[in-house]
Amino acid sequence: MTAYRTGLGWDVHRLAPDRPLILGGITIPAELGLEGHSDADVLSHAITDAVLGAAALGDIGMHFPDSDPRWQGAGSLLFLAHARDLARSRGYRIVNVDSTVILERPKLKEYRDAIRRQLAATLELDVGCVSVKFKTAENMGPVGEGRSAEAQAIVTVKSTKGRELPQRPSRLLKNH
Ligand code: C5P
Ligand code: MG
Of the candidates 5, 27, 60, 121, which lies 20 to 30 Å from 87 by C-alpha distance? Predict the structure, then answer.
């Protein structure tokens, strides 16, 4: 078994009036919020998929189908905590998270520490192991035109199941 593994996550949600803008569980004052079946926390969704991906446990829609009324309006930190527990049950401990939110406005940097603290508490990590970055799309495309927000995440996990097994030596194919 490999000692370290990584997982990748990405998500997008449409921006709409009369919806809250929730990123990493933190509600941010804004004219437009994110639309979706759950609370549409695009950052938590991307990180959840990255955790699931690192442990090869499928994706968020497999565990929390948006056709299931149980998840209507659900707080997405619940999904994240569930992914953490699933990964843990398979013997994977989360090492660190890096992420980027791509949103034209508002400016998010003053909320960075609150978001990091919330995500770290949910993932049961030191805040120093959770990175959250912000970018605009420079007025280009649906994100740049203020119609949507995206998030990307990468997560490293470490196997808690003993030592890494030695790799099999590669063999040259015969008859070549
Ligand atoms: O997209 P751009 O490179 O212009 O972003 C510059 C900086 O602005 C980012 O590094 C980030 O710190 C900040 N930013 C932000 N909120 C956003 C987008 C960017 O605080 N919605
Ligand atoms: Mg989503």
Answer: 27
Domains of the chain, by residue range, sit at 4-159
Pocket test for ligand 1, best of 21, 34, 103, 134 (most atoms within 8 A of CB): 134
Q: Does the domain formed by 4-159 have CATH 3.30.1330.50?
A: yes
pLDDT band at 153 (very low <50, low <70, confident <90, very high): very high
Residues 3 and 51: their CA atoms lie apart, in Å, by 15
The reported pTM is: 0.91
CA distance 31 to 124: 32
Supply the pLDDT for residue 15.
98
Residue 103: CB within 6 Å of ligand 1? yes
**Ligand 1 pocket: which of 28, 32, 101, 108 to mutate (most atoms <8 Å of CB)?**
108
Which long-range contacts link 20-25 to residues 24+ away (Cβ below 8 Å)? 22/76, 23/101, 23/108, 23/111, 23/115, 23/151, 24/115, 24/116, 24/118, 24/119, 24/132, 25/75, 25/76, 25/77, 25/115, 25/118, 25/119, 25/122
The predicted structure's pLDDT at residue 69: 83
